[in-house]
Amino acid sequence: MSLTAVSLPANPAADDAPEQGAPVAVAGRDFPTNRGGLCQKGWTSAEVLRAPGRLTQPLLRGADGALHPATWDDALDRVATGLRELRAAHGPEAVAVFGGGGLTNEKAYALGKFARVVLRTPSIDYNGRFCMASAAAGANRAFGIDRGLPFPLADLGRAQAVLLLGSNPAETMPPSSAHLAGARAAGGLVVVDPRRSATATLTDGSGLHLQPVPGTDLVVLLALQHVVWAEGLADTAYLAARTTGADDARRSVAAWWPERAEQVCGVPAEDLRAAARLLAAAAPAAGGTGAVILTGRGAEQSTQGTATVTAAINLALLLGLPGRPASGYGAVTGQGNGQGGREHGQKADQLPGYRRIDDPAARAHVAAVWGVDPADLPGPGLPAVELLRRCGTPAGPKALLVHGSNLLVSAPNALRVRDRLAALDLLVVCDLVLSETAQLADVVLPVTQWAEEEGTMTSLEGRVLRRRRALAPPPGVRTELEVLHDLAARLGVTTGFPTDAAEVFDELARASAGGVADYGGLSHARLDADDAGLFWPCPATPAGEPAHPGTPRLFVESFPTADGRARMVAVDHHGPADDLRPDAPVYLITGRVLQHYQSGAQTRRVAALAAAQPEAFAELHPLLADRIGVADGELVRLTSARGVAVAVAHVTESARPDAVFMPFHWPGEGSANRLTTDATDPISGMPEFKVCAIDVSAVQASAGTAPTVPVAVAAGGAIR
Ligand SMILES: Nc1nc2c(c(=O)[nH]1)N[C@H]1C(S)=C(S)[C@@H](COP(=O)(O)OP(=O)(O)OC[C@H]3O[C@@H](n4cnc5c(=O)[nH]c(N)nc54)[C@H](O)[C@@H]3O)O[C@H]1N2
Ligand SMILES: Nc1nc2c(c(=O)[nH]1)N[C@H]1C(S)=C(S)[C@@H](COP(=O)(O)OP(=O)(O)OC[C@H]3O[C@@H](n4cnc5c(=O)[nH]c(N)nc54)[C@H](O)[C@@H]3O)O[C@H]1N2
Ligand SMILES: [Mo]
Fold first, then answer.
1. Which segments carry the region annotation Disordered (predicted)?
2. How many CA atoms lie within 13 A of 691 on its CB side?
3. Which ligand 2 atom is the nearest neighbour of the CA of 407?
4. What is the CATH number of domain 59-130+337-499?
5. Distance from the CA of 248 to the center of ligand 2, in angstroms?
6. For every residue of 229-248, which 3-state class applies, written as one string?
7. Is the pTM of the predicted complex or chain greater than 0.85?
8. Ligand with the closest atom to the CA of 168
């Protein structure tokens, strides 16, 4: 299975799609990435798939301001008419598209093609911008390729040391944390997290938990490199043979000796030294079994996310790791199709096959597959945060189509996002449920989810997997391939948008051929024959020759850059955009809990999960709780320059005294993203979700005005 909880493998026993209403068992399949295990959310995912509140009819906003059930024809006509009018009045850029990393490869591909060929708009981006953008930017720059892991996940289990920066797999991908057991047993697990997360507790008794000041991972990484150089632990033969830029990178860490780094990141100098030595000893060049450096969202969702990833890569190169056994740098992918979702063209600057939309050769290739003139393909669009910021402004998009994202809850500075989306002339949301974003829409189209349709997804290791339909969709819903086909036809494009996923995949394979993410040798039929999937790049081979076996391990011989070498780039620390100050003296850090998925649109509707984590909460250290006079279980008010949130205090020593942790799974008053900043990384466009400055105080409940804690919006509540 791919490493996300909600995206579970279809029950392999369920060859015949059970009928609607029949029980669906979700079973762990014996598969190398998850060792047959499933996380808690996984065990209840059959419930998630059948969560109440499923939309089965399109909804149209009426003159009375409410959403009313409508026929598919009326709903699609309204969308097509609206798009045509807005395009005629304001030009093609006035229509924008927002995709999602939960979409299958086929849907992500079709959506990107729809934007460029039917709408002819450059304005398309997706929620992966919030997720993998910094890891992608760093890896593309250094290695010439962005595949979450350059080796099969099972290799991780053989590594003697693993450095995890800002990743909490014990809660966010429990099946994969089994692969940390090897490093843990060897005393080589190092977890960098300002919070004593569930994953950080795995270092108890052995290994190291480094608990930095939020937003200072880059300083930790610069210091680790400093120690490697200073103690003669660098793999200089590897640097000479396989990299460029090592001298620059070396100069950039000269000023970050451990005692100075400690002043900024708060991690004791001795711990920094110990971590660097432990990693160096695990490197194959030093006789170890392997060392892996992994980043998660904690290190990446920062205005210096690309720089932080670059520093992690520089450290890996310094130790000679990439391309060596059970070694290297990787980024832990997030959503169901977080990897495939970023390869096929729903990114603002991208064409299928991970091609650049500003590359003339890439445009010519893809235009030929699409049967259009390359000159008619739009150029690059704006990254997600900027796209949303411009929605409904005089020069910005007037219409937005949303496919697979609940922006009102998950986007940074969510109150501003709400204002921007409310200012649109036409908001169209395709979803399974009436998410908070769908509640604001003019048109809501009910669609199928992955388990109800045919398709493929790609795991963080670049393993392309077939997903077969495991259950019948509720009557009344359509697949997004059907929606795009129908809309294209209404907008005058009657070919090129098939509704059969195998056919879409074949075209995707041709469009990707010769690109970085080459799927040219793959098809549904070939993947059907191989339950374990195949790793891209997997190019087509000439007729009569054996099929390409796929590429489980990258970088063994060289890197896919112009000169075959990895590029080391000097980076430096500047700190968070919204830093502490007298009226905002505490950091807010955000993230996830085991029981909920993302914006919670699906998991908040599942009774068992809602009961286990019913309400928005904020973790506070006892010292901070004492200072503001709040006890465990009482309400706190969190205030940033953007907004105010209210949450239940969880008083715990796992927090730093200067940092409150709040999950972002809840809407309304309990929404962490009412507080977060929409400042972004200048290279990747990634917003700084993980760190901003807030004030926190006790909510004094006065009689009669007891504050309410937000709960899930009742399904269907806004329909009249
Ligand atoms: N249960 C569950 N699982 C999920 C998801 C979910 O919503 N729920 N979502 C999926 C998706 S899309 C993703 S992207 C992944 C995300 O997976 P992770 O990256 O593991 O998840 P997060 O909880 O966002 O962040 C990880 C850790 O970063 C820490 N952190 C916060 N600020 C900083 C900092 O400045 N530096 C460092 N080093 N750490 C910091 C937090 O304390 C947190 O423990 O999970 C996937 N799996
Ligand atoms: N503060 C803070 N905010 C964050 C993060 C953080 O760590 N901290 N993490 C960020 C990250 S990494 C991510 S990935 C985002 C995720 O946040 P979102 O982009 O909001 O992702 P989901 O909550 O998964 O929303 C998916 C929506 O699509 C619907 N859906 C599911 N499957 C399909 C489908 O096949 N088609 C369509 N059309 N709809 C479907 C679901 O019902 C749901 O309403 O949140 C980001 N926001
Ligand atoms: Mo994500």
1. 1-21
2. 28
3. 20
4. 3.40.50.740
5. 39
6. HHCCCCCHHHHHHHEECHHH
7. yes
8. 1
